[in-house]
Structure formats: C-alpha cells, structure tokens
Amino acid sequence: MTQHTSTSCNAVDTIIRPLTAQDDTAIAAVIREVSAEYGLTPDKGFSVADKTLDCLSEVYQAQGSQYWVIEYQGKVVGGAGVAALVGNIGVCELQKMYFCRAIRGQGMAKKLTKQCIEFAKQQGYKSMYLETTAVLIEALALYEKLGFNHCQHLGETGHDACEIAMIMGL
C-alpha cells in the first residue's frame, strides 16, 4: 500500500497579496494551527491569544500598517504584517508571521520578510522590531541571516511569553 503525501509547494504557484476581510478566518486558523504545532498556547501570552486575531483586516487598516497573506492553490497558508510599535517613534514591528507546514522551506518566509522590510522603509520607519520565542528555530535563523540583532524588549506588545526581542535598522 503506497501512501502519498504532499508536504511542499512550488513557490511559483504562490501568491503574496494584501489581507482582505475575506481572509480573516483563514489566517486566524493558520496562526492557531501553527501555534498549536509549536506549543504556543493562548494561555501563555503568545499572539494566538490576541483578541483581534479574528479580525486582522481591521487591525491592519491603520496608517503605516499592512498585512500580507500567502496563497497557495487558492488557500491561505501563511502571512506576516507590519505595524507601528506603540510608544516608539520611527519603529515598526514585524508581526504575526506564520506559515503552514506545506509552505515551509520554500523561501517564502524570506521573501515575505523582505517585502515587509521594503514596506517599512517606504513608510519612513527607521527600525524594525520583532518578538519571538526560542522554539521557532527556523524563524530565529532567518531573522539573524537578514540582519536582525538581539535587543532589549521595547514597549508593551502584549506578548510577554516571547522571550527574544530583535531589531534591525532600516
């Protein structure tokens, strides 16, 4: 008996596009699925607990904010966003970057992060900040490779379980 599973996608078949209200349910499901996979539970202060998780399209309508989704075969399989870091003039935050297993290892995280960085520069931000956790080994490696440096936590993001803070100058 042969078992066939497809665990990767072709980056050529993927689309990166701005989040719409029709995507809210799908991207919230991706964030919940990936969070559960890594043990990032809502009770521990990770972004999966955010009250706005089911209405991200509304959150990212703010000036200087944008969220993109990655679509593969007509299905939302990942995303990431940029928004101002409250209380830190000139600093934005890379937020809610999550990818379904099927799209990992295809270079999409790097591509989307670079798109977020370019957007941040166009918006006039001087630095990009992020918070993450040590269990996201692949994400940490990507951030370091792209030039993010470890730093002190800035502001109150509400994600107190994210023990790692990083920043990069734009």
TrEMBL record:
Keywords: Transferase
A Pfam family recorded for this sequence: Acetyltransf_1
Domain N-acetyltransferase, chain residue ranges per copy: 14-170
SUPFAM superfamilies, per database record: Acyl-CoA N-acyltransferases (Nat)
Transferase keyword on record: yes
Domain of life per record: Bacteria
InterPro entries: Acyl_CoA_acyltransferase, GNAT_dom, NAT_camello-type
Name used for this protein in its record: N-acetyltransferase domain-containing protein
Protein source organism: Shewanella ulleungensis
